[in-house]
């Protein structure tokens, strides 16, 4: 077994993966590990710490979510992304403005003419 296989962090990651998905989680030391890792292309690690075989789209999303949280934890020390409140407020305001513009501007253009004339119904 490699040093990654006995690392407490890796054991915790594998345990969380096994509880999060219905698919198979294969680790070094499992009977099917050597056969499962042979499908990887040469540019990938030939001895991955974890091989995941998802069974449905929910499993895939759980693996991506777990991987994103691990990367965030490694970068910032917290699984929750952090953004300063002022920048967050600016992003929310920009999205609200874009939503408003996408709704109001086309509506005003469409309703510039009288409604009866716009649909071609004149008496």
Architecture blueprint of SSEs:
Blueprint: H1 3-6, H2 8-20, E1 24-26, H3 33-37, E2 51-53, H4 57-76, H5 85-110, H6 115-118
Antiparallel strand pairs: 1-2
Q: What distance separates the N and C termini?
A: 86 Å
Q: Largest beta sheet, briefly? A: 2 strands, antiparallel
Q: What are the segments in which pLDDT stays under 50 over at least 5 consecutive residues?
A: none
The first-level CATH class of the largest domain is given as: Alpha Beta
Q: What fraction of the residues are assigned to beta strands by DSSP?
A: under 5%
- How is the CATH topology of the largest domain named? Uridine Diphospho-n-acetylenolpyruvylglucosamine Reductase, domain 2
Shape descriptor reads elongated
Taking all Cα atoms into account, the compactness measure Rg is: 26 Å
Give the oligomer, counting copies of the same chain as homo and different chains as hetero: single chain
User: What is the average of the pLDDT values?
Assistant: 79
- Which structural class matches the secondary elements? mainly alpha
Tally the structural domains.
2
> Counting H and I runs of at least 4 residues, what is the number of helices?
6
